[in-house]
Structure formats: structure tokens, C-alpha cells
Amino acid sequence: MVAPLSMQIGVIPKDVAAGLNYGIDKVRFLAPVPAGARVRLRVILAGIEAKDGGQAIMRTQNTLEVEGSEKPALIAETLALLIPATGAR
Fold first, then answer.
1. Residue 67's closest CA among 33, 43, 30, 29?
2. How many CB atoms lie within 10 A of CB 66?
3. Of 13, 20, 80, 84, which has the most beta carbons under 10 Å away?
């Protein structure tokens, strides 16, 4: 659920050719998500690490909240590989 919700809120910058799932670190499942429940994803940019060829690794802190629940369903740190658009180096 984290990846599609991240895309909906525009986590990947518009000036890159692609943002690829590079991994998930520090995942904690804290509460179940009931079928049909409304959820919200909060994303905080934790850092960007430059790579060769203009690429970068973007690290974000993600909290998946369930409406009406006291604690989040999930807390995870995600990584995305950002591929620059042609000529954008």
C-alpha cells in the first residue's frame, strides 16, 4: 500500500525520468488494517544520496495511519532510485 499511496501524493519529483523501488528498511507492522478501512500515508523526506550518472537514492520515512485507530498500522523507511531525465545532470 505504501508505494501506490506515495505515487498518489507525488513523492517522486516531476523532473526525473523514473523513480524505482530500491527497498524498504526498518519495517514495523503495529496494527491490522481492517478490510474497507480508510488509510492515510504520511511521508517525510529523510535524505537524498547522490549516485553516479546523476542518479540518486531518496530515503523517506512513512507512517500508514488507519482512520479511528490510536496507533499506526505501519512505520517504514523506503528507498527509491531516482533516474534523471535525459540531459538533466
1. 33
2. 19
3. 80
Half-sphere exposure of residue 78, counting CA atoms within 13 Å on the CB side? Answer: 26
State the Cα–Cα distance between residues 74 and 48, nearest whole angstrom: 22
Domain boundaries, given as residue ranges, for the chain: 2-84
Dihedral pair phi/psi, residue 23, rounded to 5°: 145, 170
**CATH assignment of 2-84, given 3.10.129.10, 3.40.1160.10, 3.90.190.20, 3.40.50.2030?**
3.10.129.10
pLDDT digit string, tens, across residues 5-54 = 888 888 888 888 989 899 998 999 999 999 999 999 999 999 999 999 89
pTM above 0.90, yes or no: no
CA distance 39 to 74: 11
